[in-house]
Structure formats: C-alpha cells, structure tokens
Amino acid sequence: MGEVYRARDTKLRRDVALKVLPDEFANGAERMMRFEREAQVLASLNHPNIATIYGLEESNNIRALIMELVEGPTLAEQIGERAMPLDEALPIAKQIAEGLEYAHERGVIHRDLKPANVKLTGDGQVKLLDFGLAKALDKPVPAGNPSISPTLTIDSTRLGFILGTAAYMAPEQARGGVVDKRVDIWAFGCVIYDIPHHA
Known about the structure:
The protein has 199 residues and is an alpha+beta fold. The protein has two domains: 4-68, Phosphorylase Kinase, domain 1, CATH 3.30.200.20; 75-197, Transferase(Phosphotransferase) domain 1 (Transferase(Phosphotransferase), domain 1). Helices cover 35% and strands 17% of the residues. The strands form two sheets. Strands 1-2-4-3 form a four-stranded antiparallel sheet, with helices on one face. Strands 5-6 form a two-stranded antiparallel ribbon. The chain starts with a strand and ends with a helix.
C-alpha cells in the first residue's frame, strides 16, 4: 500500500500517519478516482476500533492518505513475541468484532483483516487499520510465495478479483468470487485462532 510516515498537522496541531500511495497507483486516473470514492466512504466510519481517515492530499505529484496515528504494536508483532493468554486475547477479539460489526452495518468490508492490520494501543484499545483499502488497491500480484505475501490482487481485466492475504482468505475470496461481509468473518476466525497459537 505504500510507505507510512509519522507527520505533524500544523494547522490542527496533531500527529498523523501519512500513507504515501505508490506511483503506479497514484498516477492511474481511473484507479485514483475509485480510491477517492472508497476513501470518502471510509472517512465516514466513526468508531473507536477503526483508525480514522482524515483526508487525501496531493503535493508535487505525490498523493497521500492522512490517517489517525495509532501508537503501539500490531497484533502480529505482539503474538510473534509470545503466546497470548485467554484473558488478554478475549478483549482484543471483542474489539475487533465490534469494529467489524459497525463497518458491516454500513456496508463496508475490510477484505484484508490480519494481525498486521490490527494495532494495540497502550491503554488496551484495538484499532483496525487499512479498513476497506484492499478493494481500492487494484495492482498486479507480487512475486514470491502467496501464502506469506502482502495483499494479493489480480488485474481487473482478468476473471474476478483476488483481494486479501492468502493465510486469512475465505475460499470464495481466494477463487476471485463475489465477496461480502462473510470474508471478514472468516478472516476474523483465522486471526482469533492465531492469537494463542502463533508464537
């Protein structure tokens, strides 16, 4: 999805996350229009367990998404260090479910839920990152092992789309079929399984 930087919003005097869009994506007019439409929908999501999108900016032909800066490790980092006991895992699972439910009620699907897209703040709050952005990012499949790849996509001219991360992908998503909120529920189950078993 591009590089992420910590930045300072000097007008509102707050730190933000600045996610620079890759050149091949930002320079495609059709993809950029689709991304802007998707970003407008995502910016309307207002939930304590979903990282907020503040805006989309452009400067010197560089386009960036301005988002809430979420301090803390990702769930992937946390479970990579140690097995997480059940009393720690349940509040995390509950907050992920609450964020997903809120978005699903508004017709928004994450499409790439995985531990790397879940941040854990110092005060125990969970924040879902890159919510729904997989749909907007239509680019070629990266080379390498698809089971450990980042978000996988195929060109839109092919039959169907494959959007998501292989290890957390529902069967219909892996086949490039039509997806709905059930792909997030499948991925949520995979994430929950990972929490006590990953380390």
